[in-house]
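Project standup — Tuesday

K.O.: blocked on the structure for the chain from last sprint. Re-posting the sequence here as requested.
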Amino acid sequence: MEYLRFDNRFVRELPGDPEQGRHVRQVHGACYSRVEPTPVRAPALLAWSPEVASLLGLDEADVCSQEFAEVFGGNALVQGMEPYAACYGGHQFGNWAGQLGDGRAITLGETINPQGQRWELQLKGAGPTPYSRRADGRAVLRSSIREFLCSEAMHHLGVPTTRALSLVGTGEQVVRDMFYDGHARPEPGAVVCRVAPSFIRFGNFEIFASRGEEPLLERLIDFTIDRDFPELAGERDPVARRLRWFEEVCRRTAVLMAHWMRVGFVHGVMNTDNMSILGLTIDYGPYGWIDNFDPEWTPNTTDAGGRRYRFGHQPRIAHWNLWQLANALYPVIQQVEPLERALASYADIHEAEYRRMMQAKLGFAGWHAGEEADDGLLDTLHRLLERGEVDMTIFFRSLAEVDVEAPSLAPFADAFYDEGRRAGIEAELSGWLQAYAARLRDEAVPAAVRRAGMNRVNPLYVPRNYLAQQAIDAAEAGDLSELETLFDVLRQPYVAQPGRERFAARRPDWARHKAGCSMLSCSS
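H.V.: unblocked you, prediction finished:
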């Protein structure tokens, strides 16, 4: 694969673990441990992203070769790859968990594409590493399909995200207990190649702060700024540069949270080790998509009791996570007030970005702030959507079809999950529509212009859990056609695709409580 050119700055410029081997251990004084993927029995390409392949300078012939399956299934390396697993810690469900690290992810290297862009290639499910603890380092097909689909779907939705190049079946079985209820079973294994400019996360900094390894913490901060935030190179004062960097991390995280709320995405496991320093969506585990609008919903069975990571709580959790990052950075910054100002800016930026995005979703030319204006209108709508068990995606997509001269509920006929709950809000929702239509009439934006603008930000297709599960069920039975079709649909989420209407339908009743369609676990 001479078409891939590597420049592995992470392993070249940062200290590595002097100890060799995959055996589990505490790693001190190092940012990573060198470890190669564990070969699998029969690697076979199951799916791939043409857009990501193009980013890397690959074409269809490259990707569909057996050499590609061998490399991205974990059986071979090509010249220039220097595989490693990163060392990091994290707060999990609000508690410090100590060393975590890449337990089933192995970075192959940093490749430079023909345009000079840097992309890190990382295999998830490539076998054990020193950070695997009691696990086997593998991943099953169901979780790998979900990660592959959602990574690319989020990109096409316009949400900052890591990407996915390929999905490779291993030809081996992996034993998992899906709901941790004593019913373990063998499942087909798979490996996803994840792609991002960087996979550095909040936890990479937390681990060194927790151990008092301040020189290494300082070195990692400066490396991250130099490699991944080149726009800050002009700031010569080291402390000022680090503070500006933290401000930028806060800004990107605020924007990301607004995007999640815009499209109805619920991450499910917002631990600090799952927060990207670049403000990308990272680590697609037990995530979910809001069907009926419910701020209290979480897809993660592990979080079912406390609902810490529920849909409506995500912006506040991100803020809490940034506080933990600030605490980790303090030893090498030694200034409280600038860190607190950056943290305060997160809330302001998130509110502004969220309003901007909701303005676009509602089709407003501007936002009239205040409880009695658009804020109140939006709050009222959210309460009605929750009470009426209304499908979030379908409702907002259908909103563009409202006749502002004669508003009615007709465009939303397919958005309700329960007729009784629909009846309970019809009068109030009709009243809301009247106020909404009057608001639009005041702006006098031509209907065709407003409709086109709304359809650019309100998706028709999202990777609903039940759609992903249907693709998983078929793939486990040897039929990849459903996966291929769904993946293709999600590449154009804002464009109506005739003949594919079923992918825009609300969740069917049979999927309301079906495993994989409603709640999921971290098991993969």
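K.O.: great, moving the ticket to review. The two ends are 30 Å apart (CA to CA). The mean pLDDT is 95.
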